[in-house]
Amino acid sequence: MRSAFFIALLFIFLLVPSAHAVELPEWHGFIEQDFGGSLSRDSLTKHRDYNMLEQRFQLKTRYAIPGENLLSRWNGVFTYKGDFVLDEYFDTTGSYEIRELNFAFSPTSTVDIKAGRQILTWGTGDYLFINDLFPKDYVSFYIGRDDEYLKKPSDALRVSIYPKIANIDFVLIPHFTANTLPDGDRLSFFDSFEGGITGRNTQNNAVKPAWQPENFEYALRLYRTFGSTEGALYYYRGFDPSPRSYLDEANRQLFYERLDVYGASLRGPFADGIGNLETGYYRSRQDASGDNRLIENSSWKLLLGYEKDLGNDFKIGVQYQYEQKLNYDDYTSALLPQDYYWDQHRHLLTQRLTKYFKNQTVMLGLFNFWSPSDKDGYVRASCAYDITDQWKLTMGINIPWGEDDTTDFGSMKKNKNAFVRVRYSF
User: Fold this and answer.
1) In whole angstroms, what separates CA 76 from the centre of its chain?
2) 131 alpha carbon, distance to own chain's centre
3) What local confidence, expressed as pLDDT, does residue 91 receive?
4) Reported pTM
5) Which has the closest alpha carbon to 220: 232, 230, 235, 231?
6) Nearest of 172, 173, 257 to residue 207 by alpha carbon
7) Helix (H, G, I), strand (E, B), or coil: what is residue 268?
8) What residues contact residue 397 under an 8 Å CB cut-off, 6+ apart?
9) How far apart are CA 80 and CA 100, in angstroms?
10) Strand partners, 57
11) What is the DSSP letter of 5?
């Protein structure tokens, strides 16, 4: 935290060497108070009555290089965004996170380059990610932080090229960043080592890949439009951002297995709305045959989506996602009697309803996940009110549920909460 703080100060110092030499950049941001009260009163976590109590102060700025020099001719722009957080859930622990700190420039009319810390995302899903393997923060997602915090920053180099035949995005990530998942302190979760839903008493740990060239991550997207429809091809080579494989059962160690993902998507007008289709083949590089019971198998995923504006500030969206574990017979043959048994097929449906009132200053939203195969789901409902141009009030609930403790949403069923956020923007 301290080193990141000094990096930010150095950035600001270099950004504005003299008030007489350059124009001061504009700074924006917000101050926010967040609270999430537990509806489940889960005694497994640190506090049974709440899982979020924090104050957040964000600052951000963009600075275009002025003058007559190479960087200004290349349209060079510095971007910074950082959050100071006082997290009272953990005994008023203060922290500082740089969410963006990068430099973007265009050395030619057909090439854009961005280097540094940045938020990376692509794909067509709404809260569902097939070809977007960039890191996510699912703790923020479940406790009621703003959607901005679902996507974590990466330290990366992104090169975008725009030839006539198709646009190309290439991303190089030298240092692996894992998904932030429940660890028992704030949210309980299913722990296969404990044999059920657990909290602070969990003793498992996930071993991250070492920082070395052979562990660099690469992502590639080729995309272009065909009339009003955009098509894309994707490739990712790196690691599963969630630890799904077992490194050492005796010492309760999980790890992030090596992964290749090949995918494609289409998005465009359909039936008076917008339709999307996305698919991805996940190749497990360390268990291509599927006969290692400790390593996650290869899989295939398919996503179909549709959204429509019904008028009168009312929008709907629906999605269907199918997942299939490949080499399933080899997987089941390798299982031991005490092992947990994961299904071959998973079906997931989502529905989003969004309605605005009072000149779009009041928003009511409902997002619902439901898996008929897993017999679980997750309800996210929220209401946001723009009181003024600066003040905003947001309230909502998170209700995960499920019959089985081992499924994605069933494992989170003790983490139901109601949250409120009050934000002042400037």
Assistant:
1) 28
2) 12
3) 81
4) 0.92
5) 235
6) 257
7) strand
8) 39, 379, 380, 381, 382, 416, 417, 418, 419
9) 5
10) 31, 84
11) H
**Angstrom distance (rounded) from CA 400 to CA 394:** 20
Q: What Cα–Cα distance (Å) separates residue 190 from each residue in 34, 179, 335?
A: 26, 16, 19
Q: Tens digits of per-residue pLDDT, 349-392?
A: 999 999 999 999 999 999 999 999 999 999 999 999 999 999 99
Q: Which two tokens stand for residue 168?
A: 């190309």
72 backbone dihedrals φ, ψ, rounded to 5°: -70, -35
CA angle 19, 21, 23 (to 5 degrees): 60
Closest CA to 295 of 249, 247, 251: 247
Buried b (16+ CB within 10 A) or exposed e, 323-344: bebbbbeebeebeeeeeeebeb
The CB-side HSE value for 17 (13 A sphere, CA atoms) comes to: 4
Tell which residue, 302, 152, 170, 318, has the closest CA to residue 241: 152
Burial of 421 (0-12, 13-18, 19+ CB in 10 A): buried
CA-to-CA separations, 366 to 15, 192, 351, 353, in angstroms, rounded: 42, 32, 8, 5
Q: How far is CA 23 from CA 58, 63, 236, 374, in A?
A: 22, 9, 41, 57
CA–CA dist 269, 258 (Å, integer): 36
